[in-house]
């Protein structure tokens, strides 16, 4: 590891002469960012882009392999797979970001406040969150979505978002706790800083990196969850494409056209890899405690 | 000592912590004054309550009872904004130099934090005050002012902490083990710096540390704590030369001199301090004291002054003992 | 001193860490011998390489990103480049180490008795009941009261001083010939520190061990070592008998270190002679003397040429300096007089 030398007693006596240089993020990081950007761009501008209608059947072109005409081929109804993947990303991206927006919107402020205030407030909220955590989130989500029909994108986002609140709460609270006991927080208090000032000036910048990397990994988890729900038929109803239900539909057709399964799976996989990699790189990039010798 | 004004008066300060249903009395009724312009050293071993005392004075931990009076203002009953305001007159410097500074803020902003909190000055005036303070502590603001705190070594972080603590021109500084994490050569720089700043800003210091040599070097008077109580308080040179409390004597005996000709401490204190959960009756030191008698177990010794400025809480103080013997 | 072969012979030992930002020469060529029954103190500030040196002597460096060169001979066995299996034969039996933080060198989940037993049974092949008996003896030896009951205690149930005693008991389990103590009392209270140091001293003479005492505290080595090595930026800058180093030091860094240490015997408000500046960055060591940038006596030569260790008259006393302090003749007399 990079901080190995430090573990063995080599201190950093002269930090000042060193330019402020962190370890590089690396080319792969930027490749991932670019891939994520393409995905998000596609999701937003899917209907503006020159794509064939993802719902239009074309019985003269069924189960085609990749070609110049249909970049990724067509499915059993002759629909363009590329187009369906781009439209399908809309679901994944909006569920991922939407649910995390809810999770962070509620979980993060609660977690910070509880860890900063401690006391009764912390006890009550933490106990409540742990009660939620004790219940397997995936089962709760499946149960609610099975009964709460007709399903819509908003409902899916809402249910997954609420289910993620305790997880976000736990991470943010832990991060705040480890920061809140540092002397600089006490120092700020002693200098007369108000609680609000301490939270926004001292704590938030130090917790943000943890939050951002958890956010990215959280989005990845939610996207996977949506895929799983779609596979179970609990997400957006066909023929509306989502990566999950595309994989689901391809199940029975694997022997006839392998491409219907491979491309949505690949899209999902690359999207998740990018998110995870970016999250992980950012975490170590912003980690000030990790000495970069 | 000649007529001196008391800046900080501490009356019967108690700090209790709840720990697993039991009450630990970390500070068990201590009373002392700090005079304007002096440095009072507070020494003791870990767990004796010296750091808790410092933190209770700043109201970082809440005192259970007792009063803290700073320049006539009763700090122990203050709340909210009044407390925040009062604390600007008394500042604290912490042990861990790295953790004392927010790693994600720039040096100038860290030093300006108290100024920004109170909006006491802005713009160019603020920058001028901050740069001036940084100069005073030996950090070139032109070169380093915009760096992040995480780029500095321990000694430099401690300098920045000092600059920050002086931003609101406090009357008093509480230094909690502020040099114990530093290397010898850096420690000497910081101690000298502190002496210079004390003279320049007319500061009063409460210097809390476990290192007896460091405490003697910086202090005018020294107070010794054991298990939440004050054992002895007196002028530094006198107390080190003629310790009156047996504990002080052992503590000094155990201090290692950087001198190969120094006598080896053969007569060292055995055992370890008892748990503050269940302190001994009477004198708290009696379980390790070679002179302890029944009286020590039954009766708690009170602080008594037996020469000007030198007080001791012991039934059989050593100096008087040797004189009468 | 006897003319026996030294127990420990370190020659041109260099430990270099390969890091993302370049090579860090944590130990840059160290040579010294340690005789049987001798105690040597290694003194230096953080970053001086004293801990890395101790770990390199022990063969404790990780295999990756570290380059150890030179030679460490312990009683005829070469440690540099030895395989883990070879080192395991030496560890605990020939050489043992005490680390600074007793909490991290003990397993918090295992009763302390078991932790001592383990070494005894593994290394000495004792059976269960013998090992327990010996473990209790050892706990007793290191001054742990009611050793029988403490045998069953977990590390967290003991105070810092007691834990360090347990660590010492484990280190002594196989009666090693050499004990490496890395800051054994840092973090302990003064009275406990005195207890532990006295204990180490007494055990050392009872068990005929040699000891390497690594510390930043001149007070720790002043009365407890035969010889002292002063390190700066990974190199030995001065070495000699304890009295030579304290009373007749020639290297300005040694002088500065002594002058910047506050002393209990000095009157309060005695101005300390602080050394300006900070220790150098090991990533960019100057070609000259590493201390030159902070040295009040530094000349052009100091910045350009690195001084090698040279003798200061007595064969034991070496220093590395182009402009050494003069030998204080009067100090020599006084320290010689008090030696009796």
Folded structure, characterized:
The complex is a heterotrimer of chains A (293), B (325) and C (340). Helix content of chain A is 67%, strand content 0%. Chain A contains ten helices and no strands. The termini of chain A are close together. The model of chain A is unreliable at 1-21 (pLDDT under 50). With 325 residues, chain B is an alpha/beta fold. In chain B, the strands form two sheets. In chain B, strands 6-7-8-3-9-10-12-11 form an eight-stranded mixed sheet, sandwiched between helices. A four-stranded antiparallel sheet of chain B has the order 2-1-4-5. In chain C, helix 10 runs antiparallel to helix 13 (329-337). Chain C is globular. The model of chain C is unreliable at 331-340 (pLDDT under 50). Chains in contact: A-B, A-C, B-C. At the B-C interface, helix 7, helix 8, helix 9 and helix 10 of B face helix 7, helix 8, helix 9, helix 10 and helix 11 of C.
How are the elements arranged and paired?
The complex is a heterotrimer of chains A (293), B (325) and C (340).
Chain A: H1 4-7, H2 27-45, H3 81-117, H4 119-134, H5 137-147, H6 153-180, H7 183-190, H8 195-231, H9 243-250, H10 259-286
Helix pairs in contact in A: 2-3, 2-10, 3-4, 3-6, 3-8, 4-6, 5-6, 6-8, 7-8, 8-9, 8-10, 9-10
Chain B: E1 6-19, E2 22-35, E3 39-43, H1 50-57, E4 65-70, E5 73-74, H2 80-87, E6 90-93, H3 107-118, H4 123-136, H5 141-144, H6 154-166, E7 172-176, H7 184-201, E8 204-209, H8 212-218, E9 221-226, E10 229-235, H9 236-241, H10 246-254, H11 294-298, E11 304-307, E12 310-312, H12 318-324
Parallel strand pairs in B: 3-8, 3-9, 6-7, 7-8
Antiparallel strand pairs in B: 1-2, 1-4, 4-5, 9-10, 10-12, 11-12
Chain C: E1 8-19, E2 22-34, E3 39-43, H1 50-58, E4 66-74, E5 77-78, H2 84-90, E6 95-98, H3 102-105, H4 112-124, H5 128-141, H6 147-150, H7 160-172, E7 178-182, H8 190-207, E8 210-215, H9 218-222, E9 227-232, E10 235-241, H10 242-248, H11 252-260, H12 300-304, E11 310-312, E12 314-319, H13 329-337
Parallel strand pairs in C: 3-8, 3-9, 6-7, 7-8
Antiparallel strand pairs in C: 1-2, 1-4, 4-5, 9-10, 10-12, 11-12
